[in-house]
Amino acid sequence: MSADVKSNLQIINDKIRQVEKKSGRAEGSVKLMAVSKFHPAEDVIAAINEGQLLFGENRVQEAGEKFPAIFEQFPSAELHMIGSLQSNKVKNAVKIASCIESVDRISLMDEIEKQCAKIEKTISVFFEVHTGEESKSGFESEEEVEKALSLCAQGKYPHIIPRGFMTMAPFTEDKTLVRKSFVTLRELSERMKAKFPQFDMPELSMGMSGDFEIAIEEGSTLVRVGTAIFGERDYSK
Ligand SMILES: *Cc1c(COP(=O)(O)O)cnc(C)c1O
User: Fold this and answer.
1) What is the spatial distance between Cα 188 and Cα 170, in angstroms, rounded to a whole number?
2) E strands along 2-122, which residues?
3) Which numbered atom of ligand 1 lies nearest the CA of 102?
4) 36 CA distance to ligand 1 centroid (A)?
5) Atom 4 in ligand 1: which residue has the minimum CA distance?
């Protein structure tokens, strides 16, 4: 195992509690997702043994190779898909994930609905929104997000439960830009929650290893942390 998962988890959880407190957030209002992409199942199991149950993966194939065996051993473990998702991967994604956080287009919702209907599963989704200059994923405009929610409200997606919003801040040293991106998502989510009160959408998935403190200050309810828990990813594998 490459990183000391146990002590890293302790450090991150302590930091989350500290920033919650400092920024006036309720204790425990921020959940931690351990992003295990490019790390082996044994690292995931090490994290589970420390009480970490929520994981995130980018690629359906990798998640499909790793997680079914983990779920068998640890039924309370949970997986969210967080990477941009091709429609032909949805069938396998909805089998293993409890939530798709990277919903970035209406055609993807059509496919999620179709595949979930087949296996009679309802799935939670977050709407991923493009909030920073450099990142490329996510709905491009608020109008598009609103359209997606309108379709949900019209009953077009009975197997999809909107639960919140997700974004990736731009990869920059400029903390002002990072913060701006998180504020943009929070404000958009407030407007959508007001427009669609029939949906319970409390989640704001924002913040990664390098910027989760700022994200918590700006209202994140779910931080997605990979490197700071599992160490650097080896992309050559
Ligand atoms: C990889 C990834 C993360 C984790 O990034 P780290 O910098 O390793 O913490 C979070 N969110 C998404 C969408 C990712 O792709």
Assistant:
1) 17
2) 31-35, 54-57, 78-81, 99-103
3) 13
4) 9
5) 226
Q: Which of 1, 36, 33, 4 is nearest to 16 (CA)?
A: 33
Q: What is the DSSP string of 43-56?
A: HHHHHHTTT--EEE
The protein residue whose alpha carbon is closest to atom 10 in ligand 1 is 224
Place of tokens 């930091």: 15
| C-beta of 164 in contact with ligand 1 (< 6 A) | no
CA pair distance 129, 137, nearest whole angstrom: 7
Distance 87 CA to ligand 1 centre (A): 21
Residue pLDDT, tens place only, 152-201: 999 999 999 999 999 999 999 999 999 999 999 999 999 999 999 999 99
3-state secondary structure of 189: helix
Nearest to 181 by CA among 164, 167, 165: 167
Q: Is any atom of ligand 1 closer than 6 Å to the C-beta of 227?
A: yes
- 35-58 tens-digit pLDDT: 999 999 999 999 999 999 999 999
Please tell me the distance from the alpha carbon of residue 88 to that of residue 108, in angstroms, as a whole number. 10
Is residue 188 within 8 A of residue 145, CB to CB? The reply is yes
Tell me the residue length of the chain: 237
**Torsion angles phi and psi, residue 120, rounded to 5:** 50, 50
Give the DSSP H/E element, type plus range, for residue 205: strand 203-205
C-alpha 224 – ligand 1 centre gap (Å): 6
